Structure formats: C-alpha cells, structure tokens
Amino acid sequence: MKPDTLTDGIYRVAAKVGNRDLFEGIWPIPHGVMLNAYVVKGSEKNAMIDLVKDWDGAAEIVDSKLNELGLSDGQLDYLILNHMEPDHTGAMALFVEKHPNVEILCSEKAVPLIKHFYSIEKNVRSVKDGETIDLGGKTLQFFMTPNIHWPETMMTYAVEDGILFSCDAFGSFGQYDHCFDDQLTKKELDLLIGETERYYANIVSSFSSFVLRGIAKLEGLTIKQVAPSHGIVWREEPLTIINWYKTLATYMDGPREKEITVVWSSMYGNTAALVPFIVEGAESEGIPVHVLEIPQTHESFVLEKVWRSEGLVIGMPTYEYKMFPPMYHILDILERSHVQKRKTMRFGSFGWSGGAQKQFDVFAEAMKLECAGVVEYQGAASEEDKRRAYEMAKEMAKQIKEA
Ligand code: FEO
Fold first, then answer.
1. Distance CA 242, CA 212 (A)
2. Is 149 in the pocket of ligand 1 (CB under 6 A)?
3. How far apart are CA 41 and CA 163, in angstroms?
4. What distance in Å separates the CA atoms of residue 249 and residue 201, rounded to the nearest whole number?
5. Closest atom, ligand 1, to C-alpha of 230
6. Which atom of ligand 1 has the smallest separation from the CA of 229?
7. What is the tally of helices (H) and strands (E) in the chain?
8. Is the minimum distance from the CB of 168 to ligand 1 under 6 angstroms?
C-alpha cells in the first residue's frame, strides 16, 4: 500500500490492523480498525502527525510508507502527538531511535505521559492553544480539545489547506480499502455507518459533552478535509462526519432516536417468556425495537444500540439475591459510558427470593432513568404478567412516539 495523498505535500500513512483482536483490550473489532498517521512536507521542514502502535506490523508498514515519501531515518523534524493513547504512540521509542533529532510537540498534559509510557524527555516541547509552527509554505496550528479522548488531547490544523487532523474524534472502527469518503464502495459505506456508531458509543460516548465543546471551538475554521486517526478521510463532505458526531454526542442528554432497545437475559426461560410481549407492545406503536440477549451479545453491540435509543428495557432474573451477574456487568458499562435519562422498564423472574430490583434501583438512580414500571414475578410469568408487560411497553413506546 502506498501513502494516500490528501493534497500536495500532505499524506496519510495508514495500516489496517486488529480483526482478530479486542480494541483497548475490551471491544471486539471483527472488521479491524485503521491506524492513520499523517505526514506534512513543507519546503523547509517535515512533520509527522501521530504514530501507530506496533500492531499487526503497523510500525513497519508506516516506516515503509515514510521511505516512499523520501523520509527515511532522521529526515523528520517534528513528531506531533495529538493524543497519547498507545494506539497512536506505541511505536514511539522505535520512531525516536530512527529520527533521533525529531522535536516532539504535544499538549502540556502529554509531557508527563510521554515520560511515564516511554521514558522519553529529550526534545519534548508542549505547545499552547492556537500556537502555530511554519514548515515552509505549510503552517500547522494546534487546538486543545481535552477529553476527546483523554485529557491531554489536542487537534492539529493545516492552515493553508484547511485539513483538520482530529485523532480519535470523527473516527470509526473498520478497515477500508479506500482512503476518502467519495471513493467508498457501497459495502464500505455500509460498514462505515455501523462502525462509526459503535466506535462512538464504545470509545467516545463518555466524553460527549467535550465533543460538543470541541466542535463548537472548531466552528470558525474552514475545514476542507477531516483526517482522523481511525477510519477514513472526509474530503467531499467533511461536515457530514462533524454533524454526525454532533448528533451522536447529543444522544447523551437527548433527544435520541425514537427506538427502544430490549436487553435481556434468562436462566431457564421464565424471564425470556416476556420478551415477545414487550416487543409486540412497543411495535404496536410503530417504534423500532432492538432485541439483544446477554451474555450472548457482547456489551460493545449492546452499548451501540442503547446509546441511540430513547427507550431501554432491561430483563433479568434474580440470581442469589442480586441481579443476574452478566446484566450487572452490562449496566456497569452503560453507566460508565454515560447512558442516562432513558425511558425504562424492567422485567424478570425470581425463584426462592427476589433481590434484583433492589440492585437495579441503584443503577436506575445513578443513571437518572425514568422508570415506567416493573413486571417481576416468582417462577413462571402469568397471563396477567404478560398483559402488563405488553401494556407497559406499549405505553412507553407511545410516550416516545409523541415526545
Ligand atoms: Fe485511538 Fe484514544 O486512542
């Protein structure tokens, strides 16, 4: 694979990695992920923006692309680190060895992280918000955008060319043969749609208020291309991904999609027995319903659907006086990801003792869920339980529809 040319003197050096791995050690990426780094060549100096982790040969791939650009060992003047997470910095020690005089530019908060992760202190300089460097005909400007994704995160803007190097922001999971939005095949586009939403929900959702702040901060810039460190480069419609992220961030406080996600688990089928009645009740109001069984479905996919949905239905039995453990884990992930203020109902069976509801109430309060009610029963669900579940789901769907 050759470097991709964004414009004269600006290139993407990318690697496709990870389709057998978990991103951050937790999130499945069956379609892999792109690690995108960028090169800006000025008439006097050259800069690399972000790096890669040595993952599935990514460091070697990037190195060979640098060679193709005529930037072999020692020929880069700047390494700009927008974000310190190791998927963008893992190959740093190796890189610094090859480019021993490179000056590392980063935010103030990144400086100690570089030391702690890589024991590198030499030639590290922090830049200020709005500061620029001149490469000779190419000016790079830095904008502090904390918490998209870590507190030290910044973005780099190529002033003359209007290209925003946004690192994690505006990124996606998935590997793509084509670099640009206007080149994608139908198959790639379909993948991108799902994998952008899942990436956002899994990686960025907790930081949604910072995403909105970051987008507001960038409003005055003329952005001709958005070049994130995961996914594709947006050059035909850069505003599409910015507005899409705005919508995804807005899901935190709402409004969200008029949809309901039913997350359920069952030990012997007694909790499962109510699922069709709940789905039927919600669908009778014309509201789309996502149904996800756990632990069979990974939390990555649960979070993706819950994040976008106005309604949340949780079904689980009591297990040893408490919540069914896989559901405890799911709710913990949802709470950490700042899923909040959903219209909610809960259902589930218990055997010799209840207890799940008491533990669920703690999550409901922390997540500010608007609970429409509970259908809980000992043993098997009665006809009355099924009727109540249907009616409760229908009423919730009606409220969502009419909101
Ligand atoms: Fe792609 Fe927060 O790292």
1. 10
2. yes
3. 14
4. 9
5. 1
6. 1
7. 12, 21
8. yes
Atom of ligand 1 lying closest to residue 167 CA: 1
CB of residue 376 inside a 6 A radius of ligand 1: no
**What domains does the chain contain, in order, with CATH numbers?**
4-250 (3.60.15.10), 261-397 (3.40.50.360)
- Cα(52) to centroid(ligand 1), Å: 10
Cβ–ligand 1 distance for 88 under 6 Å, the answer: yes
Calculate ∠ Cα 333-335-339, nearest 5°. 105
Strands 163-167 and 225-228: parallel
Report the separation in Å between the CA atom of 314 and the middle of ligand 1, taken as the mean of its atom positions: 30
- Residue whose CA is at the smallest distance from ligand 1 atom 1: 168
Please tell me the distance between residue 344's alpha carbon and the centre of ligand 1 in angstroms.
Answer: 32
> What's the mean pLDDT in 306-313?
98
Band (pLDDT 50/70/90 cuts) for residue 116 is very high
Distance (Å) from CA 96 to ligand 1 centroid: 20
H or E stretch at 208: helix 208-218
Length of the chain: 403
Distance CA 195, CA 199 (A): 6
Distance 85 CA to ligand 1 centre (A): 5
Confidence category of residue 73, pLDDT binned at 50, 70, 90: confident
State the Cα–Cα distance between residues 311 and 198, nearest whole angstrom. 18
| Mean pLDDT to the nearest integer, 102-125 | 97
User: Please, what is the end-to-end C-alpha distance for the chain in angstroms?
Assistant: 50
Ligand 1, atom 3: closest residue by C-alpha:
85
User: Which of 237, 226, 89, 71 is closest to 153 using CA atoms?
Assistant: 89
Asked if 153 and 170 touch (Cβ cutoff 8 Å), the reply is no
Given a cut of 90, whether residue 78 has pLDDT beyond it is: yes
